[in-house]
Amino acid sequence: MIDHVRGSVASVGLDYAVIDVGGFGMRLEASPGTLASLRVGEDVTLVTEFLVRQDAMTLYGFLDTDERTCFRALQTVTGVGARTALAVLAVHTPDELRRAIASEDLAALQKVPGIGKKSASRMALELKDKLGAPVSDIPAAPLAADVDAAVVDALIGLGWQSKVAESAVGDVMAPGMTTSQILRAALQHLGGKA
After folding, report:
1. Which of 32, 45, 183, 185 has a 20 to 30 A CA-CA distance from 82?
2. For residue 58, what are the domain limits?
3. How would you classify the pairing of strands 43-52 and 57-62?
4. What angle do CA 14, 71, 54 make, to 5 degrees?
5. What is the DSSP string of 144-155?
6. Which of 142, 147, 137 is CA-nearest to residue 177?
7. What is any one GO biological process for this UniProt entry (predicted)?
8. pLDDT of residue 2
């Protein structure tokens, strides 16, 4: 129903944030990782999940759709509700959760308060085919992303030939690198000073 919320951060509590959206203060429950990234007064966009129960209507906020996808998948596990799903995301990033599920690492899943051996086993069994592989384990496409092109353009602007710039970016690229990290690594690779 509500896919995302964009506005200014009005306040941040222990387990929630209030986002000022067009004069309305929207309270969003969120994980500690999401809350730690918010600063009062800054503009933010959070993807959301709106849950309606008999006794409450609650809006949950996430930094990205990957975290929301994991939140939704966790709630499909028998006995896991929204609070427990949020607790899991407080302990594990989406990729850490995928690795724990894929390797059936029950000890990692039991680090979440309220998750015992039986619940961890159920999570590993019921989520095995729902979450997929960790995103950081998926190889990056060579020079297809805008980030790659931007770095190549920057290197060309600094005087390197197009083929040399493309080769350098291809040599240093690794999954999860930011544009500035790729540029710095490419410059070092080419013998420049970052």
Report:
1. 45
2. 4-62
3. antiparallel
4. 80
5. -SHHHHHHHHHH
6. 147
7. DNA recombination
8. 85
Structure tokens at 10: 């009005």
Q: Say how many residues make up the chain.
A: 194
What's residue 137's pLDDT?
54
Of 13, 28, 21, 18, residue with least CA distance to 61? 28
By C-alpha distance, which of 109, 150, 151 is closest to 128? 109
Asked if residue 194 belongs to a domain, the reply is no
Q: Does the pTM of the predicted model rise above 0.70?
A: no
DSSP state of 180: H
Instruction: Using the predicted structure, report yes or no on whether residue 20 has a pLDDT greater than 90.
Output: yes
| Distance from C-alpha of 92 to C-alpha of 67, rounded to nearest angstrom | 10
Q: What is the mean pLDDT of residues 99-112?
A: 90
Chosen domain end from 137, 161, 176: 137
Examine the domain organization and report whether 69 and 122 are in the same domain. Answer: yes
Query: What are φ and ψ of residue 109, in 5° steps?
Result: -65, -30
